[in-house]
Amino acid sequence: MNNRRPFISRKPARPSSGKRDQPEARLQKLVNRSLQSQFKGRCHVRDTNPEMVRVGQQAMRGATNKGRPDIVGHIYGLHIEIELKVSNNYPTSEQKLEIRRVNRTGAIAVVIVHVRSKDKYYLVLGPSVERFSYKSRDGWVLLPKFTDHKDTEFLLLEPLNYLLITKAAALVDLMTPTQTQQGD
User: Fold this and answer.
1) pLDDT (tens digit, 9 = 90+) per residue, 126-173?
2) Is 166 a domain residue?
3) How far apart (Å, rounded) are the C-alpha atoms in residues 184 and 181?
4) Alpha-carbon distance 167 to 177, whole Å?
5) For residue 43, what are the contacts with CB-CB under 8 A and spacing of at least 6?
6) Number of structural domains the chain divides into
């Protein structure tokens, strides 16, 4: 009688290439292209991939910097952080906390969502992130997609522009001395 267990062939886990999930990587390219196009000369952003950590020669998903956004930078001199989500991916509790903290300081943190089944893009502002729902889409603002003469796709980021201008105006108002401060 053979008491040995049957041999089960298991493929070793593929090492991570360090590349992001393809749908989110495509969304990141689209958002970056749209930011650079619509805020030309007034925008400096960089991609982050905080959960990818190097262990020796291998890139692995780790637990460092949880909650950090996918895109960080400045538009019109205002700090902005953008988290990207593709269909059925939800912001983590750490990401929600980070968005709340950033918005509390007067900077801007938002989520841009691509609902692949409808091929629609949405801007989700800070307060709406807390009750994030693909079903109700409460507080989500549609971002129209357009194509230029070279067949390059862009998102129309006008709602983000409006948010930035409103924030900038509020900052100018805060920095403008009142009549009593001026001594008049």
Assistant:
1) 889 999 999 999 999 999 999 999 999 999 999 999 999 998 888 888
2) yes
3) 8
4) 18
5) 35, 36, 73, 74, 75
6) 1
Per the structure, the complete domain to which residue 47 belongs is given by 41-175
Q: Is 148 left (phi over 0), alpha (psi -120 to 50) or beta?
A: beta
- CATH assignment at residue 81: 3.40.1350
Query: Is 164 part of a structural domain of the chain?
Result: yes
* Cβ proximity of 62 and 51 under 8 Å: yes
Signed CA dihedral, 14, 87, 36, 162: sign only:
negative
Helices assigned H by DSSP within 71-142: 93-104, 126-129
Rg, Å, the chain Cα set? 21
The residue written with tokens 């008049």 in the block is 184
Taking the model in full, what pTM does it have?
Answer: 0.77
Beta bridge partners, 108, equal: 80
